[in-house]
Specification:
The protein is of the alpha/beta class. It contains six helices and eleven strands.
Length: about 280
């Protein structure tokens, strides 16, 4: 029987700052954006419909590749944890990494709200790692950090690359890996990457990923336009990249998927787009 993995991203549970201490220039801009358009694109009703739909699917592992929140507020994390609770009952079957909105502004060390509410699905280190029941292995990166008001960029730390390489060396050379990161490394032909919106070290990370033939599947979000891309390597199997960043947003005309379910059997994988109806 095939192993089934559900991939969600960019749920953007949202709220407005309640305390004066929660306001700053970037949050004021984000709150204005939320009021003018983002709240209508990501209503709570869509996230509730998504949770209900995924609860009724048969799956072995759930991946959420970041942006649980909109402004990185504690009340947003609290809401996300509460609303996602039906999907989080078996912690060893869930992997969650942060997105740039979850690290929206610089906070004091005691206000790592992602860690407080979701660390059990990532871990205490910079790298998340799971051995899946299908024989594949999963790595999750935390590449997000507070950025200036005009930027939504992130950075894959050198330590994350080195730790990943150590896991490859410790594993059977034939073991397939899934890599989860919030940011894309390739884009559709009609889209050019924005240097203020993507990985600051995009080119070097892309090159590194393609040089690791054990990485078969790259799951991400960030750009609210789903896609499935395939990149060929000089040696080794192709790299399949799946963007599920439209998981909970209100449907756009012509939209073909909200999120994806990935079936894995042996070394083979199949990506199934799933459209969440209104």
């Amino acid at each position: 029987m095939a192993f089934s993995l559900v991939h969600l991203s960019d749920l953007h549970f949202n709220a407005y700052p309640e305390k004066l201490s929660e306001w700053n220039f970037k949050r004021a801009l984000g709150a204005a954006n939320l009021f003018l358009k983002r709240a209508r694109k990501h209503p709570l009703s869509r996230n509730r419909l998504l949770v209900e739909h995924v609860s009724n699917l048969q799956w072995d592992h759930l991946v959420i590749s970041g942006d649980l929140t909109q402004l990185g507020l504690e009340q947003e994390f609290e809401q996300a944890r509460r609303e996602l609770d039906p999907l989080l009952q078996e912690k060893n079957r869930v992997s969650i990494i942060p997105g740039n909105h979850d690290r929206y502004v610089a906070e004091s060390r005691d206000k790592d709200f992602f860690g407080q509410y979701f660390s059990e699905f990532f871990g205490e280190d910079d790298l998340h790692h799971r051995d899946l029941a299908c024989g594949w292995k999963l790595i999750g990166w935390d590449s997000c950090h507070p950025a200036p008001w005009y930027s939504a960029s992130g950075t894959v730390n050198h330590s994350s690359l080195k730790q990943s390489e150590s896991l490859f060396k410790e594993s059977d050379p034939e073991s397939p890996f899934i890599l989860v990161n919030h940011y894309p490394i390739h884009f559709p032909e009609d889209r050019n990457p924005d240097p203020h919106h993507e990985l600051s070290n995009l080119e070097s990370v892309r090159e590194w990923v393609l040089e690791q033939p054990q990485i078969r599947l790259y799951l991400h979000g960030h750009i609210h336009q789903n896609w499935i891309l395939k990149s060929h390597r000089q040696e080794g199997p192709e790299l399949v990249q799946v963007n599920s960043a439209a998981s909970s947003q209100v449907l756009k005309p012509g939209q073909k998927s909200s999120f994806h379910q990935i079936q894995i059997e042996g070394d083979a994988l199949e990506v199934l787009p799933i459209l969440l109806a209104e």
